[in-house]
Design brief:
Helix content is 50%, strand content 10%. By secondary structure, the protein is an alpha/beta fold. It folds into two domains: 318 residues, Metal-dependent hydrolases (TIM Barrel), CATH 3.20.20.140; 44 residues. Helix 1 crosses helix 14, helix 11 runs antiparallel to helix 12 and helix 13 crosses helix 14. The longest helix has 34 residues.
Length: 404
């Protein structure tokens, strides 16, 4: 009996210790998030903001949206880039003009939301704004543009969008455009990298102090940008190709070249960019079908058709739940970059509301789980600070200083 009591006391002691360690860990994570400046460099929430049923100023839940101002605060996220995303369509004057109008509508919606909820968030324009707003307890909302399609071939639109608050342009999306080749265009390369117009765009972005985003562009276009840009560049939402074999991800040589340029790769939390998918599942096949519809027909759909497509996406996620990668799988990518080129060249760009979200980090409120995983792996507070914003803001400041 005495032996049994001793065993129970030991087990009870271990249980108390484990709970104490868990509490200390949670406390440590919160302390870090309260102390450091944190940024997520890519979400597609402005698309949802065009829907009258979505309000970014109140707490929502997935799958309607993975981002809103209250959950940003819950997750200890100080700053975020809201992307004005336009899908690539045939490059007709009409389609270009529609993309231009759509991008402006998303920018308008971002300003309107920040004006409506001024006590919670504000549109930010400079790296210093993030620090200023963090001290005021507000979220800094930066504007990015995903896909240079709205520029058409009008170089003046680069400055126009800069003046509207856009601080990076992802040069293309899933298909080639007038700026450069895409990493995923099924037709293959059109310009063999950057086009002549694309070279003008790079020079103009350098001149203005606007960050060049190399996510989505072809490998050759990436090397062209590196050769021409006078400023460091960013990959706002890309991951490591050596871990997940997707053309959207970056090879070891690309990551080394990016680091030599002084740039930063922001790890994307989208499942197929984190882990190679199981292509035999019903979910994968149905998702592929819906993706094809989205990529080829979305811009020409009526509002009712778009609503129906969104409902089909929701139904797919409910009826065929995906075995998502985990937070640990995401941090594997951070580890890989750290081991390859050092801790100074990696950050986080979730792609929330554009497909991003993993097991353990389904929305912005769960970002501390990534910090907890880094702590578990022995990352120092300084290293975590660099991943969560230090590296990116270093690049942002360099780009701003090199403008003329």
């Amino acid at each position: 009996m005495q032996k049994l009591i001793m065993v129970l006391l030991v087990l009870f002691s271990i249980n108390i210790t484990n709970h104490a360690e868990e509490k200390v860990s949670e406390k440590k994570v919160r302390e870090i998030h309260d102390k450091i400046l944190t940024v997520d460099t890519h979400c597609d929430t402005p698309m949802a903001m065009l829907d009258d049923n979505f309000d970014v100023g109140i707490r929502n839940s997935p799958p309607q949206s993975r981002v809103d101002f209250p959950r940003m605060k819950e997750g200890g996220l100080d700053a975020m880039f809201f992307a004005a995303f336009t899908g690539q369509r045939e490059r007709t004057p009409e389609n270009t003009e529609n993309a231009y109008k759509m991008a402006n509508q998303m920018i308008d919606a971002t300003y309107e939301a920040c004006n409506k909820y001024n006590e919670m968030a504000e549109v930010a324009l400079t790296p210093a704004d993030a620090t200023r707003l963090e001290k005021q307890g507000k979220r800094a909302i930066y504007i990015g543009m995903e896909n240079g399609f709205p520029l058409g071939t009008d170089i003046k639109r680069v400055k126009e969008f800069y003046n509207r608050g856009v601080r990076y342009i992802t040069l293309c999306h899933s298909s080639n455009n007038d700026i450069c080749d895409s990493s995923t265009d099924k037709k293959g390369p059109e310009h063999n990298g950057l086009s002549d117009f694309g070279k003008e765009v790079v020079a103009e972005m350098n001149h203005l102090g606007m960050m060049i985003d190399v996510s989505h562009i072809s490998d050759k276009a990436f090397y062209d940008v590196i050769q021409l840009s006078k400023a460091p560049v960013i990959a706002s939402h890309s991951s490591v190709r050596a871990i997940a074999r997707h053309n959207r991800n970056m090879t070891d040589d690309m990551i080394k070249t990016l680091a030599k340029n002084g740039g930063v790769i922001q790890i994307c939390l989208l499942d197929v960019y984190i882990k190679n998918p199981d292509v035999t599942t019903v979910r994968y096949k149905k998702e592929k079908e819906l993706n094809h519809i989205y990529e080829t027909r979305y811009e020409s759909m009526t509002d009712d058709e778009k609503k129906k497509l969104r409902e089909e996406w929701r139904s797919l996620r409910e009826n065929y739940p995906n075995a998502l990668p985990t937070v640990a799988d995401c941090v594997d990518h951070i580890d890989y970059v750290k081991n390859l080129v050092g801790i100074d060249y990696v950050g986080i760009g979730s792609d929330f509301d554009g497909g991003g979200g993993v097991d353990g980090c389904a929305d912005v409120s769960e970002f501390p789980n990534i910090t907890a995983e880094m702590l578990k792996r022995g990352y120092s507070e300084n290293e975590i600070s660099k991943v969560w914003g230090g590296n990116f803001f270093r690049v942002f400041k360099q780009v701003e200083m090199l403008s003329n």
